[in-house]
């Protein structure tokens, strides 16, 4: 195995990883009743708030996303990764145009055992820095004649995810005793939300490598579709710091709060550290949807979350600059770990 994939000894997966118990499961089916009753909304908000506070993530069931929409997206992803290497390379992303196919991504400066396809549901977008440091977000779709229905399937799935993400955002706002639409204004047509299709091939040394190294998501929310037949998501349990496996639950999504919600909530909620393991026998697929605000967003604790007794714990930062830095690190091994919100804490 190439040394680029080998994790440091302290970060290598240790087998067997215990299965997590007590993971919160939130049934969103009351949202299907229009309008939902105030009691149902309060109960859902309380459940989401407890999950975000105690775990940093939860399983969402009864979410209303059609099974057929999910199945089409999964089938499209499998069909794409089954293409010959040269056809995938035709939509390969670059450092300046970081959407499309890639198979050499790094997390914490170690190469991940996976290949990915990234798409922006809202595009085109550019993030201008210095004249020679501009990222241009234009989707690179395979030709529809070569992969019929691929684009349509992913766009349908992304639209369903955005609808779900806005509902979840309202529940999070309610759980923090904010007005229901308090956070919606950050997610207009200029949002930096992106969706990824992951393939984790069988790995000859799953004791040395990870499909996705340990990290916390830098955005607002992540909605993850796990491969029900394989699994591999692992989280660092908050109570004892141990790594535990999140077994797939058919028909569910894993929802986790990212660093932005942690900052907005002024540490009421904390993003969860997680990773993806691989195995030597089966390939695994997943589809994460990263719900992110506009490039121009200045991220800081919300004024409603700050008081004299509980001052702001983070300095404000530009999401566009933060996002640019994170995307750059996917392409190269850096001399130091990537920027983290812990570096922005005022009380460090």
Automatic annotation (TrEMBL):
SUPFAM superfamilies: Clavaminate synthase-like (SSF51197)
Top-level taxon: Eukaryota
Protein family membership: Belongs to the iron/ascorbate-dependent oxidoreductase family.
InterPro entries named in the record: DIOX_N (IPR026992), IPNS-like_FE2OG_OXY (IPR044861), IPNS-like_sf (IPR027443), Oxoglu/Fe-dep_dioxygenase_dom (IPR005123), Plant_2OG-oxidoreductases (IPR050295)
One matching Pfam family: DIOX_N
TM segment ranges: none
The protein, known as: Fe2OG dioxygenase domain-containing protein
Provenance organism: Zea mays
């Amino acid at each position: 195995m190439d040394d680029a994939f080998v994790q440091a000894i302290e970060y290598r997966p240790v087998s067997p990883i215990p299965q997590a118990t007590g993971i919160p499961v939130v049934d969103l089916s009351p949202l299907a009743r229009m309008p939902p009753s105030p009691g149902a909304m309060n109960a859902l908000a309380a459940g989401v708030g407890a999950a975000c506070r105690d775990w940093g993530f939860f399983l969402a069931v009864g979410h209303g996303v059609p099974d057929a929409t999910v199945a089409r997206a999964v089938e499209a992803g499998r069909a794409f990764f089954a293409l010959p290497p040269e056809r995938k390379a035709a939509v390969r992303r670059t450092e300046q145009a970081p959407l499309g196919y890639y198979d050499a991504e790094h997390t914490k400066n170690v190469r991940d055992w996976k290949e990915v396809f990234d798409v922006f549901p809202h595009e085109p977008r550019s993030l201008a820095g210095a004249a020679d440091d501009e990222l241009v977000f234009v989707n690179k779709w395979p030709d529809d004649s070569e992969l019929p229905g691929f684009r349509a399937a992913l766009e349908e799935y992304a639209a369903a995810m955005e609808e779900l993400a806005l509902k979840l955002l309202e529940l999070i706002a309610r759980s923090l005793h904010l007005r229901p639409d308090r956070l919606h204004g950050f997610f207009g047509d200029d949002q930096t939300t992106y969706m990824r299709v992951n393939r984790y091939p069988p790995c000859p040394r799953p004791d040395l490598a990870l499909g996705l190294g340990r990290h916390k998501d830098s955005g607002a929310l992540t909605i993850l579709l796990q491969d029900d037949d394989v699994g591999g998501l692992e989280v660092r349990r908050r109570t004892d710091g141990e790594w535990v496996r999140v077994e797939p639950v058919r028909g569910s999504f894993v929802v986790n709060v990212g660093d932005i919600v942690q900052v907005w909530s002024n540490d009421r909620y904390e993003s969860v550290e997680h990773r993806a393991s691989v195995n030597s026998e089966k390939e695994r697929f997943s589809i994460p949807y990263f719900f992110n605000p506009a490039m121009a967003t200045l991220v800081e604790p919300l004024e409603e979350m700050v008081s004299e007794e509980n001052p702001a714990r983070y300095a404000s930062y530009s999401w566009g600059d933060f996002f640019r830095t994170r995307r750059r690190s996917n392409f190269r091994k850096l001399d130091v770990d990537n920027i983290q919100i812990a570096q922005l804490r005022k009380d460090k």
